[in-house]
Design brief:
The structure holds two protein chains of two kinds. Chain A is an all-beta fold. Chain A is built from no helices and twelve strands. Helix content of chain B is 0%, strand content 53%. Classes of the chains: A mainly beta, B mainly beta.
């Protein structure tokens, strides 16, 4: 079945460091890929998405490229801030309304000043 | 703009008690979902509703029931709570382009 695998955390970085959080997936079709972020005490919110191979999603300085050949969707940011401390979830969705929305286990990021 | 609203935010139950978690969305979305979040396991789907009047089981439905009362509201009921149901519960609705919108969650402890 479909699955999403994320690197385990926690990831601890100093402010202005480069961030990579790895995400790979397995899927039978051609899913859309997402990164969601969860700040302490809140629900998840969409960070970025990509719907087809070679698409790049970007938002708030974060980027991820849909790589079909390596079935990956790694999250990157060139210079993290303390305010980026959160849990990041990689996810895939096969199609709208089918409930086939699979989340990874989440990666906790802590950024130190 | 309220989005997805969940109540209550916190709840403590004794084993065997029942309760209903409420969820409402004001974005006119057809699809709604209930997830549970446990450490190291990400989000697991309990039930979902593709449209008003329909509900289907997800990955971990045992011990839960749901009601899609109308297009806005989707409730989750625990008939006889067990310690294994201690978790954080999230309701979500799905809008255009498969984007899901989440409530702030309900933190449930079953003693």
């Amino acid at each position: 079945g479909d699955s999403v695998t994320q690197m385990e955390g926690p990831v601890t970085l100093s402010e202005e460091a480069f961030l990579t959080i790895n995400c790979t997936y397995t899927a039978t079709g051609y899913p859309s890929l997402f990164w969601y972020v969860q700040y302490p005490g809140e629900g998840l919110q969409l960070l970025l998405k990509a719907t087809k191979a070679d698409d790049k999603g970007s938002n708030k300085g974060f980027e991820a490229t849909y790589r079909k050949e390596t079935t990956s969707f790694h999250l990157e940011k060139g210079s993290v801030q303390v305010s980026d401390s959160a849990v990041y979830f990689c996810a895939l969705s096969e199609a709208s309304g089918t409930y086939k929305y699979i989340f990874g286990t989440g990666t906790r990021l802590k950024v130190l000043a | 703009n309220a989005g997805v609203t969940q109540t209550p935010k916190f709840q403590v139950l004794k084993t065997g008690q029942s309760m209903t978690l409420q969820c409402a969305q004001d974005m006119n979305h057809n699809s709604m979902y209930w997830y549970r979040q446990d450490p190291g396991m990400g989000l697991r789907l309990i039930y979902y509703s593709a449209s008003e009047g329909t509900t289907d089981k997800g990955e971990v439905p045992n011990g839960y029931n749901v009601s899609r009362l109308n297009k806005r509201e989707f409730s989750l009921r625990l008939e006889s709570a067990a310690p294994s149901q201690t978790s954080v519960y999230f309701c979500a609705s799905e809008g255009a382009k498969n984007i899901q919108y989440f409530g702030a969650g309900t933190r449930l402890s079953v003693l």
